[in-house]
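Long-time lurker. I teach an intro course on protein structure, and each term I like to show students one example going from raw sequence to a predicted 3D structure in C-alpha cell notation. This year I'd like something fresh instead of my usual example. Would anyone be willing to generate the C-alpha cells for the chain below so I can use it in lecture? Attribution to the forum is fine with me.
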Amino acid sequence: MGRLVTSGFEWKALAVDTDFTSPDGGKFQAGLTVETSIVRSGAASAKASLGSNTSGIGQRFDIVGTSVGLTYFTRFGFYVGSRTAIAQADHIFRCTDASGNDLLNMAFSPSASTIGMYYGTGRTQIGATTSLSTGQWYVIEASVCITSGAGADDYIAYRVNGALVDKQTVTIGTAAPNRFMFGLINGLGVGGAATVYYDDVAVNDDVGAYEKSWPGPNRKIVLLTPFNDNARGGWTGGSGGTSNLAQGVDNLPPVGATDPGTDASQIRNAVSSATDNYDVNMNTFGLAGLISSDIVNYVRWWINHGTASATTPPTRHGQLIGNPAESAEQAMATPSAAVGAYPSNWIWDSGTHMYNPTVVISGTPPVLRVGKRTASTFVVDVDAMGIYAEYTPGWQTAPTLGGSLYDQMDETTASDTDYIYATAS
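-- Reply from a regular --
Happy to contribute to a lecture. Here you go:
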C-alpha cells in the first residue's frame, strides 16, 4: 500500500467529520479545533488544548486491514504553544490495535518540555527523551512493528526532525496496529496543561514501491481548491445557476444542504445521462505556494457527494483528468439516504494514490472531474472538491543514502524515503 493517511487539516472540518475515510476526519474526538495563524504549511493546522484533566482530545485515523509483521511509520508536525509545569505527561500520539490496546505512545511532559516513547498496555516509558522548545515547529516520526512471536521481538522507534532518537526491541503483543491518534490524548494520571498544534500528518506502511518507510521530515502538505469552471455539462448550481459552479464546491469546510441547496452550497445533476461530467479547474500548484524547484511527491483528490433521494440513487465517478491525469476514473460510493445539512449523509470519496507525478507547477491548472454514470433524473449532489498534494521544498540538498537516517528499524535496503536532508525544518 505505502501511504495510508495524508492530512494537513486543510478542509477545516474537524468539528463535524466522523468518518475515517474523510480527508481530515479520522473519528474526530471533541476538543480539537482548526487553527489558521500557527501553521507549518498550507492554510490550517489542528490545535489541542488540555488542562489538568484526563478527558483526552484528538483526531483518530482507523486504518482498515493492517497486518502483523508490517512496519508502520507515522509523521506529524508538532508545535508547543504553551505549557504548565505539571509533572505528569500528556500523550501527543497514540497507536493502538483494533480493540484500543496501546502499542506505542509518544508523550509530552509539560514540566520538562520533553517527549519520549511509551509502549504496551502498561504505557511503559523506554529509551531516550528529546527536549522541545516552545514556539517552534518540530517534525516527529514514530514507527512500530508487531510481530507474530511471543517474545521480545516487537520494534519501536522515533525520530525528531529526521534524526533517529531511539529504537527498541520490546514485547508488546500480537495484534496489528489499527488506530493512529493525534492530540492531547488521555494523560498519564493527571494531565499537564498544554496547548499544542499539529500539521502535515502522514501514515505509511512498508508495502509497495513508494512511501514504504519514514514519511520524511521536510515535506509539506497543501490543498488545491477549485478556481473556475472548465466544462459544466448538464450540471447546475443548487439554485439552478449555470455559471461559476466552482463556488458551490469551494467551501472549507463543506456547507452542503438538503437538496437542492443553493448555488453557493453545492452543485447538482438531474440530467438523464450516464456520461455527463462537471470538470473544474483547480488552483495551480504555484498558487498553493510551490515554486518550480519543488518536488511533488504525492497527490490524491477528494470529492464530497450525496443524493436527493434514497430511491435509486445514480452512480457517480471521479477522476483527475489533467496535471496530473489518472489513467482511469474511479467509482464512488452510492448513497443510501438523502443529504441534509453537512455532514448528514454526505460521503467523502477519493482517487488513487499518485506517487511522484509529473506536474506543471505554474500556469497549468489541475482539472478534477465528477461524473454521473446512471441515465436517470435522480440527482447527484456535490458540495466539495479538492486535491491534497505533498511536496518536498526544492531548496533542500539533493537526497543521498547512508548515515544515521538510513539506520532506521532493521531495514537493510534503501527506499524512496531513506534520505539525509541538509535542513530539518
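Some talking points for your students: Residues 397-425 have pLDDT under 50 and may be disordered. The two ends are 27 Å apart (CA to CA).
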